[in-house]
Amino acid sequence: MAYAEQYIEKLRKSGLRPTKQRIKICEVLFDAENTFHFTIKELVKIIENQANIKVSLATVYNTVHAFMRKGYLKEIPLNASQSYYDTNVTHHHHFFDEEENRLIDIHQDDVDEVNIKRTIPGKKIKSVEVIAKIVSDNQSQK
Amino acid sequence: MAYAEQYIEKLRKSGLRPTKQRIKICEVLFDAENTFHFTIKELVKIIENQANIKVSLATVYNTVHAFMRKGYLKEIPLNASQSYYDTNVTHHHHFFDEEENRLIDIHQDDVDEVNIKRTIPGKKIKSVEVIAKIVSDNQSQK
DNA sequence: TAATACATTATATTTATTCTAAACTGTTGA
DNA sequence: TCAACAGTTTAGAATAAATATAATGTATTA
């Protein structure tokens, strides 16, 4: 709760009113020592477990989208039934373990700069994401 | 229709019965001179427009999934409300134009090999996909 | 502190996708 | 060739994520 002030500041600076729901969501997302991945469903569950306040599903969606627009969160490009979000907004990539449905960060230093030689007239590259799908490495493979 | 024979062959080889619905879907997907991207909804529309036969939505889903399992199609990793599929199953990457909701192929030669230095014990990399999001390049930007 | 613009909420709605169970069809082997 | 079977198609129902709605509540402002 000690961090509430800085979240109020953060929200205000980006033109979002610091409501108690948004501050609570900030605490869940940005108090954590490490960045992490989540789905809306998981986020709702965390809020339910650690908060005394009730936050409606619509608010969670709205807030997550607002935070994305402000660059506090990013969406991980994955074809999953639910969207995955990342509190780590620095430039990095992901392994996706399809067997365990688990995302693992790949630090930027662990991937050579992705250099795309082709350009599209009138467009510029906003972001580059690498998704490496991984599966069990059964030794006994041909 | 001249290609029907080869589709029958293709389906049979992969253990799928060559039904008239599947052959029709093959014609739509693989007769095209160029590879292309599509959503289920778009595929249904194409089939409706160029076929005399009626194919139910469930069959389209089943067939697309069967073709994916066989490696005839692949899914493009994108957080979109609908899944995007690609008839180009060779190793390549994509631009995604968020403003126009448009996918553009990036040929493998236009991207340096993505070399991931990190490994996960017991796992091996199955596929590596690069998604480059592009936006309008307004000259007048700081 | 009143007015107002923005937020939250419960609920309904939308939409993609999956499921179901009955009817149908391609294949196999006699 | 045909019966039997396993795989397939189908319409419609079910599911679930995400979005819209509209009434109520709250932060901001002057």
Structure characterization notes:
The structure is a homodimer. Chain A is α+β, with helices and mostly antiparallel strands and about 140 residues long. The first copy, chain A, has two domains: about 5-75, Orthogonal Bundle (Arc Repressor Mutant, subunit A), CATH 1.10.10.10; about 90-135, no CATH class. Helices cover about 30% and strands about 25% of the residues of chain A. Chain A contains four helices and six strands. The first copy, chain A, has helices at about 5-15, 20-30, 40-50, 55-70; strands at about 35-40, 75, 85, 95, 100-105, 125-135. In chain A, the strands form two sheets. In chain A, strands 1-3-2 form a three-stranded antiparallel β-sheet. In chain A, strands 5-4-6 form a three-stranded mixed β-sheet, with no helix packed on it. In chain A, a hairpin with a 4-residue loop joins strand 4 and strand 5 (about 100-105). In chain A, helix 1 crosses helix 2 (about 20-30). Chain A starts with a helix and ends in a 6-residue tail after the last strand. The model of chain A has no long low-confidence stretch (mean pLDDT about 90). The interface of A and B includes residues 97, 112, 120, 130 and 133 of A. Chain B binds a DNA duplex (30 and 30 nucleotides) through helix 2 and helix 4.
